[in-house]
Amino acid sequence: MLVAVAAAAFAVRLGSFAGWAAWGPLERELKLEPQRGLERLQSSVWMTWPWTVGRARELNGAWLRGAKAPEIATGLTRLGNLQRRWFPGNPIGWLNLSRASLAAGREDAALAAIAGAIRRDPTSPYLHRFKALVLLRMGLYDKALAELAQAEGLAPGYSLPKVDVLPGDDQWVRFEGLRRAAELYPRQRTRKLLALAEALRRSGKKEEAVATLAPVARDPRVVIAKARWAIEDGAPARAIALCRSLIVRMLPSNIRSQAYDVLARALAVEGDDAGAMRAANKAVRSAPNLPGPYLSLASIALRRGDTEAALRYMHRAWGRAPADVRVLVQVAAIAQRAGDDGDARLTLTRAVELAPEQPRVAARLVVFLLDHGDYMAAALELSKALDRSPDDPALLRLAGRLQAETSRAQTRHQR
Predict the structure, then answer these.
(1) How many CA atoms lie within 13 A of 295 on its CB side?
(2) Residue range 77-108, pLDDT digits in tens
(3) How far is 149 from 129, CA to CA, in rounded Å?
């Protein structure tokens, strides 16, 4: 019995090695000469082996650029059918059949095939975005946007395959994706709705942001968010009331710390530096590893003229959240106010690296570079940001500012 099991295991490993050996040369040929690679894909007897078909899941559609559409359709049809035969529960065979149908100009068949792929993996953002591509080819723009929103809900920020939409519709996709995320992930409902509300506020839709949070209005995280918004809207007294209504409740230590932190900021805006300091220190004691209280202490120290203490608190906040974009942006602001331009530039650069899809973060770095006369670096960062967000109003305004300032600099140099 043991001998039979060992022999079967050896046969499986041998087959796996044979599949790898057969797929390797074909993969190289598909990358270097896709036309010839597709011809081999259509005719190779090795492609009937399940082990070779399994390896073929690594095929990337980008390898086939430059090949003729009929060969792409024929090659991917054969591969897709083999993948469906040997791996019926995997969506890859259906995806390749959809790709093949698109190459052949048969959009209805492509849509049916990608629907089969999604039935086998409804949580794949790639499959939903590919379906959006198919729908766009069919002229069904609204349905394509709905699929993009579904992909956004499953994996916010995921962008493959690339799908071009009309200006402004990308914002609808983002908002609708966040709404769907709250339904797709019920255990994360509050967090997803907060993300949607924050996005709505950034776009100027303040009333809609508040309405979005109505189903979870009593959640402490929502109350803290509303208190923070009240400070931003120039109503610190309301923020103080909201935070004080929270700190009398039994709360987890990190939530209590956040409530005291926002209370400290609101008291500081009201001019009560002593009360702000007491609240910030209570926030630190509640959760010493959170960055927010140290940022509040740094701001209070700056108002008191204690630059050394401000920088010390700033570095503590930075050390506790070195990859948090919001914290990095706040650290940069405090560093600038304290005269530490080196750390300000470093943290803004890091924030852009962590969140390249957020134009407002890139805009902060560009403004910093322009303010310091580094026009070459500003132009480079602005160019990269505009490639990602070509219609962003803030970036377009900065492009005008950059052009005007470089023109003035050239005029002064010529004199």
Answers:
(1) 25
(2) 888 898 898 888 999 999 989 999 999 999 99
(3) 9
Residues 302-320 have a mean pLDDT of: 86
Provide the Cα torsion 382, 233, 157, 214; round to 10°.
Answer: -170
Using a 10 angstrom Cβ sphere, with 0-12 exposed, 13-18 middle and 19 or more buried, the burial of residue 371 is: exposed
Please report, to the nearest 10 degrees, the dihedral formed by the alpha carbons of residues 264, 250, 324, 342 taken in order.
30
Burial (CB < 10 A; 0-12, 13-18, 19+), residue 387, is exposed
DSSP per residue over 15-33, as a string? HHHHHHHHHHHHHHHHHH-
CB of 87 closer than 8 Å to CB of 53:
yes
Least confident of 202-206, 301-305, 349-353, 381-385: 301-305
Q: What is the mean pLDDT of residues 195-208?
A: 90
What are the b/e assignments for 314-344, b being 16+ CB within 10 Å? bbbbbebbeebbebbbbbbbbbbbbebeebb
Let me know: does 153 contact 178? Beta carbons within 8 Å. Answer: yes
Q: Which tokens hold the place of 265?
A: 């900021």
Q: Which residue has the tokens 């600038």?
A: 336
Rounded Cα distance between 349 and 335, Å, is 14
Tens of pLDDT, residue by residue over 44-68, are 776 776 777 777 777 777 777 778 8
pTM of the complete model: 0.69
Query: Identity (one letter) of the amino acid at 117?
Result: A
C-alpha to C-alpha distance for 293 and 392, rounded to whole angstroms: 32
Q: Please tell me the predicted confidence (pLDDT) of residue 21.
A: 65
Token readout for 341 is 């331009």
Q: How many CB atoms lie within 10 A of CB 403?
A: 11
User: Where do runs of H (alpha helix) occur along 69-124?
Assistant: 69-86, 92-103, 107-120
333/364 Cα distance (integer angstroms): 10
